[in-house]
Amino acid sequence: MEYCIPGLETERLLLRPFEKSDLNDFFDCCKNPHLGDNAGWMPHRTIEESEAILNEVFIGQPGMWAIVSLEDNRLIGSIGLIKDPLRNYHSSKMMGYWLHEDYWGRGLISEAVEAVLYFGFEQLELNLITINCYPHNARSLRVIERFGFTYEGTLHQADELYDGRVLDLQCFFLTRKEYFERQGLCAD
C-alpha cells in the first residue's frame, strides 16, 4: 500500500516530506555518534555522505517525514511509517524515528509518534503498527511503553553494525483495536 504523506502539524512540530534544503540540518543531526548508536548507523563523516543518504533514503520515500521544530524552523529528526520487513501483511506498517540530541527530553518524539499513530490508524486504517528497538535505547523504550505497544519478543543477533557489534532487536506491536481502546473509542 503506497501512499503520499500529508504534512502533519502538532503543537510544536511540523511533519513533512524531506527536501534538498534540509541537507545542513540533516548533517548536523546525523554526525552525532549518540544518535547513530541508538539508530544503528555510522555517524555521518561528511556533508557529501549526508547528501547521498538524504537523496537515496529520505527524499521522496513514502511514509517518511522530516520532523521540523516550529520554534526555530529546523529539521530536527525523522519519523517513518514504512513496510515492516518482517511481515507480509498489507495492513501493517513499521514505525521508526530519530531526533537531534539537542532536542531530547522535551517530549517531541512522543508528540510526533502520537500524530503518526493517529494518521496510521485513523487515516490509513491500518490494523497493526510495529516498532523495533535496541535493548540499550532506554529513551525509545520509554516512548514505546508510553503508547501501549506490546512486547512481542527479541530478535536475537538481528543487526550487525558498522563497528562490528551484533545487537538484538526488541520487537513491539500495537493493534488498531488497542489504539482505539486507549483513545476511549471503538474501532470500526
What composes the largest sheet?
8 strands, mixed
How far is the N terminus from the C terminus?
A: 20 Å
Provide the spatial order of strands within the biggest beta sheet: 1-2-3-4-5-6-8-7
Shape: globular
Give a structural overview.
The protein is α+β, with helices and mostly antiparallel strands and 188 residues long. 32% of the residues lie in helices and 29% in strands. The protein has six helices and eight strands; from the N terminus they run ββαααβββαβαββα. Strands 1-2-3-4-5-6-8-7 form an eight-stranded mixed beta sheet, with helices on both faces. Strand 3 (64-69) and strand 4 form a beta hairpin. Helix 1 packs across helix 3 (47-58). The radius of gyration is 16 Å and the shape is globular. The two termini are 20 Å apart.
Write the layout of secondary structure elements.
Layout: E1 8-9, E2 13-16, H1 23-30, H2 33-39, H3 47-58, E3 64-69, E4 75-82, E5 92-99, H4 108-123, E6 128-133, H5 138-146, E7 150-160, E8 166-175, H6 176-183
Parallel strand pairs: 5-6
Antiparallel strand pairs: 1-2, 2-3, 3-4, 4-5, 6-8, 7-8
Features:
6 helices, 29% strand, single chain, alpha+beta, eight-stranded mixed β-sheet
Give a short overview.
By secondary structure, the protein is of the alpha+beta class. 32% of the residues lie in helices and 29% in strands. The longest helix has 16 residues, at 108-123.
